[in-house]
């Protein structure tokens, strides 16, 4: 082996090391779990638990059309989090390690691309030495670090392209398997998939023109992609696809900011730069050297084209066409073509389809991999004089660009991880997952943090999702009564800043936080004989805290469900509650605001009528709350009302038949005020709550719990986790869907004969089945790689 | 298109392939800045009536690259757009030429 043959490998090591050193603050978190990323999308959780990665993953799905954290459960045990939990990495460590790994893979890809074309070892080494820093330290690359899962895909594009090109030469199954595995792993969010798919299509066109196995190449990676991402597709089958962020005409405008051609050529077309604008736009050295990069790459292509072989021409033309096309999209509405297209899509109401492209500038990040490929090819065909000139030019441009580039502000200030107050770490260590933590944050509050260099800064608080286990935003706890805190199993209430309100909490200072005691015992499960499904101020009577917004529980569909649940139940247990707010009646009345009223409103008038659906024949009780002097008729039967605490008047048993019934309330006086009327089935709910108790429970994982209940009869099992696709699974195979309690947690109607109950987040089943398929496919692919190799 | 087989067409191509990009560049980049259609429409016909000679094709690139460099120096977005379209039409002309030869 000649000494010079080692040059490319040495260049790979040196240039990769230089890039890693430049990215030092980002990688510092690998060795120091105390560091936390605290910038926007790049934020990670404080503490050793992994929570943010799960959350981020769920946001990047097409699922349910909204970024509702309630969906996050599905991804709670996604592959990354499982892995990070397994290796006991914090989120910051995992994110850092992922970035480093991708960077190493990408550098290896650039090495192979350079070696593929440039046969002169010295020039090849020079190319590697220049192209690796160019690829990772251009502004497009560094800015996208803020979206970790887009960046890691960007990082590996050179290796992906290299594997595709290798396949086009040798048609080796090993290469296509490796290529497909990369497609599957790195294309797991829509944006990444699109970037990889564009490169894939370009390569497929190249192989087609070379008369290779283009159909196999086109389809096999897509099939493997689908299998490797089976968990996501399993969910899609369940809930459908929709981009989670709304795309409006207005958003397509502002997302086109700075998308002018000149800014694109200057790598400055990000619609929302996160560094001082003068460091980007009033920075001639940076801008001109960036534009000159483009000119240099085009010049190299133009000069080398005539020397190219047929295949090389095919490849370079395809890659150049891709660059030209991407440059149209990346400008957004600054491009006439795109403006017409976007207006057309908005006009026909299909704007949501633009979702993954809506931040137009982003797609530009697939240009650099084409640039380095065309450049390597072009340089390799030049005569040594021209080659010297071009390589030296690139070196000078790189130095100029790096010296003036705003990337250093991103790497060393904006994106650099920080140390936060010890209190966060102590809480993360000390608070378990069975109970709940409720964070009260003052909007815009800042906390003390320290940079790696020991400088004190005020920054926004880190992500706190891995401290204990909280409720998603779906539950808005506005000044909750103490009883509600108990019902929701909230053991810790932590104030950050001065959020206002909640003065009844008895808090103590802990660093910059205030730790307030919530429920003393950890009790995720509770047993009720009946439940409160609606807004009402009966809470004093029942000692149940009730959250507003459940007036819709009088919809027929709810009762159909109850009826199914109630099958097999013993007589006497109630199953249905219908609640009629005064203002929901029909008739001759006006509404009046009254803060004491249920739903804050009363109906005031002479006559109120309400038609409703009764799920099955049975005995019912009517309770009406309002002013004096009202006469009630249930389907024509006069109802005698007697006094019943906190303003309610209650009837005796009334027999009602299944089907449509009516409630008419007449006022004997000039006018009466009606707040709310309840109609409920079975026993009097004023009796003691619950006939049973929880004798034990176990949290297997966030999506699987086991609970034992000792009960003499049917009961309602309350489960203090976010309301969603939860199911109670009984030993006899019965599955019981969750009903919403307290406007946010789960309840299951259980036949009393069952004592041991499994509570499962149902979407996790599909996810885990998909995961098993993915794992099997992955192992198959790995086996394939080795078998082919050993052949 | 087989314009290049006709004498008149040949003349236009041989002379025009150098001049037209220049004209379109000035029209789109300087006189009507920001008007992409003007640049695209004046540059694209070149892509379809591709010049036979390599140096003519390369002219498209050189004009485009010149425009990009000029844009860098004077900071004109119109120039950048014009340069882009010249490169785009150059790439297209190469692609069409190549496909026809295939």
Task: Provide structural commentary.
The complex is a heterodimer of chains A (791) and B (102). In chain A, 44% of the residues lie in helices and 20% in strands. Chain A has 27 helices and 28 strands. In chain A, the strands form five sheets. In chain A, strands 10, 11, 12, 13, 14, 15, 16, 17, 18, 19 and 20 form an eleven-stranded antiparallel β-sheet that branches. In chain A, strands 21-22-28-24-25 form a five-stranded antiparallel β-sheet. In chain A, helix 2 (24-31) packs across helix 6. Chain A is elongated and about 105 Å long. The two termini of chain A are 27 Å apart. The relative contact order of chain A is 0.10. Mean pLDDT of chain A is 80; it is low at 57-77, 531-575 and 684-690. With 102 residues, chain B is mostly helical. Helix content of chain B is 82%, strand content 0%. Chain B is built from four helices and no strands. The two termini of chain B are 16 Å apart. The interface between A and B is medium-sized, with 30 and 32 residues.
Entry summary:
Chain A is an alpha+beta fold and 791 residues long.
Element layout with pairings:
The complex is a heterodimer of chains A (791) and B (102).
Chain A: H1 7-22, H2 24-31, E1 35-36, H3 52-59, H4 72-75, H5 79-86, H6 91-117, H7 121-137, H8 139-144, H9 148-170, H10 173-186, H11 190-209, H12 214-228, H13 230-239, H14 249-254, H15 261-265, H16 278-281, H17 284-304, H18 310-330, H19 336-347, H20 367-381, H21 384-404, H22 407-414, E2 418-420, H23 422-430, E3 436-441, E4 447-450, E5 456-459, H24 482-487, E6 490-496, E7 508-510, E8 513-517, E9 525-528, H25 539-542, H26 556-566, E10 577-581, E11 586-593, E12 601-614, E13 618-626, E14 630-634, E15 637-639, E16 642-643, E17 648-650, E18 654-656, E19 659-667, E20 672-681, E21 692-701, E22 704-711, E23 715-722, E24 726-730, E25 735-737, E26 739-741, E27 745-750, E28 756-761, H27 763-790
Parallel strand pairs in A: 3-6
Antiparallel strand pairs in A: 1-2, 2-4, 4-5, 6-8, 7-8, 9-23, 10-20, 11-12, 12-19, 12-20, 13-17, 13-18, 13-20, 14-15, 14-19, 16-17, 21-22, 22-28, 23-27, 24-25, 24-28, 26-27
Helix pairs in contact in A: 1-6, 1-7, 2-6, 6-7, 6-9, 6-20, 7-20, 7-21, 9-10, 9-11, 10-12, 10-27, 11-12, 11-18, 13-27, 17-20, 17-21, 18-20
Chain B: H1 7-31, H2 36-48, H3 54-74, H4 77-101
Helix pairs in contact in B: 1-2, 1-3, 1-4, 2-4, 3-4
């Amino acid at each position: 082996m000649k000494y010079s043959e080692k040059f490319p490998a040495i260049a790979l090591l040196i240039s990769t090391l230089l890039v890693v050193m430049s990215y030092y603050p980002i990688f510092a978190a690998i060795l120091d779990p105390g560091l936390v990323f605290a910038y926007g999308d790049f934020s990670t959780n404080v503490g050793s638990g992994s929570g943010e990665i799960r959350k981020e993953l769920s946001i990047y799905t097409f699922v349910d059309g909204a970024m509702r954290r309630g969906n996050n459960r599905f991804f709670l045990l996604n592959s990354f989090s499982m892995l990070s939990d397994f290796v006991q990495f914090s989120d910051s460590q995992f994110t850092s390690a992922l970035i480093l790994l991708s960077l190493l893979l990408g550098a290896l890809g650039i090495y192979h691309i350079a070696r593929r074309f440039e046969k002169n070892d010295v020039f090849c080494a020079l190319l590697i030495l220049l192209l690796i820093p160019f690829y990772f330290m251009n502004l497009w690359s560094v800015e996208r670090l803020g979206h970790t899962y887009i960046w890691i895909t960007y990082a590996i594009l050179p290796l992906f392209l290299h594997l595709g090109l290798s396949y086009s030469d040798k048609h080796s199954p090993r290469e296509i398997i490796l290529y497909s595995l990369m497609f599957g792993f790195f294309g797991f969010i829509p944006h990444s998939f699109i970037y990889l798919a564009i490169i894939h299509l370009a390569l497929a066109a190249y192989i087609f023109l070379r008369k290779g196995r283009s159909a196999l190449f086109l389809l096999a990676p897509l099939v493997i992609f689908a299998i490797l991402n089976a968990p996501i597709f399993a969910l899609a089958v369940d809930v459908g696809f929709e981009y989670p962020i709304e795309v409006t005409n207005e958003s397509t405008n502002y997302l086109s900011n700075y998308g002018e051609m000149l800014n694109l050529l200057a790598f400055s077309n990000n619609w929302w730069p996160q560094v001082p604008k003068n460091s980007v736009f009033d920075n001639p050295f940076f801008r001109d050297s960036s534009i000159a990069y483009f000119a240099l790459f085009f010049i190299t292509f133009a000069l080398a084209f005539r020397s190219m072989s047929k295949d090389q021409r095919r490849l370079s033309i395809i890659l150049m066409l891709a660059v030209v096309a991407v440059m149209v999209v990346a400008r957004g509405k600054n491009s006439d073509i795109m403006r017409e297209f976007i207006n057309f899509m908005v006009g026909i109401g299909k704007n949501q389809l633009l979702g993954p492209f809506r931040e137009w500038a982003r797609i530009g990040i697939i240009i650099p991999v084409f640039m380095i490929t065309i450049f390597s090819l072009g340089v390799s065909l030049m005569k040594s004089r021209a080659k010297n000139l071009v390589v030296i030019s690139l070196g000078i441009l790189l130095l100029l660009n790096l010296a003036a580039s705003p990337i250093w502000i991103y790497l060393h200030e904006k994106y650099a991880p920080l140390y936060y107050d010890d209190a966060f770490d102590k809480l993360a260590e000390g608070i378990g997952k069975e109970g709940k933590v409720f964070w009260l944050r003052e909007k815009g509050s800042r906390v003390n943090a320290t940079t790696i260099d020991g400088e004190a800064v005020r920054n926004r608080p880190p992500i706190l999702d891995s401290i204990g286990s909280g409720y998603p935003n779906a539950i808005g706890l506005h000044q909750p009564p103490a009883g509600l805190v108990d019902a929701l199993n909230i053991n810790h209430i932590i104030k950050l800043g001065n959020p206002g309100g909640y003065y009844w909490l008895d808090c103590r200072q802990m660093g910059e936080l205030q730790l307030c005691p919530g429920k003393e015992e950890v009790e995720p499960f509770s047993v009720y004989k009946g439940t409160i499904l609606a807004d009402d101020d009966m809470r004093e009577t029942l000692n149940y805290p009730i959250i507003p917004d459940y007036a819709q529980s009088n919809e027929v569909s709810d009762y159909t469900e109850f009826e199914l649940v109630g099958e097999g139940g013993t007589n006497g247990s109630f199953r249905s509650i219908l609640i009629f707010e005064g203002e929901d009646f029909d008739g001759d009345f006006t509404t009046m605001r009254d803060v004491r009223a249920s739903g804050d409103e009363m109906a005031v008038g002479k006559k109120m009528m309400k038609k409703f659906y009764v799920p099955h024949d049975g005995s019912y009780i009517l309770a009406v709350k309002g002013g004096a002097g009202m006469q009630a008729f249930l389907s024509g039967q006069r109802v005698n009302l007697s006094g019943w605490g906190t303003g309610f008047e209650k009837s005796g048993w009334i027999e009602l038949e299944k089907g449509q019934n009516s409630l008419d309330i007449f006022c004997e006086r000039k006018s009466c005020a009606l707040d709310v009327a309840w109609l409920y089935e079975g026993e009097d709910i004023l009796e003691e709550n619950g006939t049973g108790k929880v004798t034990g429970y176990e949290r297997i994982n966030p999506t699987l719990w086991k609970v034992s209940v000792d009960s003499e009869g049917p009961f309602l099992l309350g489960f203090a986790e976010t309301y969603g696709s939860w199911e109670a699974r009984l030993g006899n195979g019965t599955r019981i869907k969750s009903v919403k309690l307290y406007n946010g947690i789960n309840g299951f109607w259980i036949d009393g004969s069952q004592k041991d109950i499994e509570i499962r987040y149902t979407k996790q089943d599909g996810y885990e089945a998909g995961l098993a398929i993915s794992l099997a496919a992955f192992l198959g692919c790995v086996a394939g790689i080795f078998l082919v190799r050993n052949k | 298109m087989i314009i290049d087989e006709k004498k008149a067409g040949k003349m236009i191509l041989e002379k025009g392939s150098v001049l037209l990009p220049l004209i379109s560049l000035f029209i789109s980049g300087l006189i009507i800045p920001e008007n992409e259609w003007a640049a695209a429409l004046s540059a694209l016909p070149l892509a379809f009536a591709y010049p036979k000679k390599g140096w003519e094709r390369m002219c498209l690139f050189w004009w485009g690259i010149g425009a990009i460099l000029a844009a860098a120096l004077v900071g004109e977005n119109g120039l950048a757009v014009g340069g882009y379209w010249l490169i785009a039409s150059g790439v297209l002309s190469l692609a069409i030429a190549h496909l026809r030869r295939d």
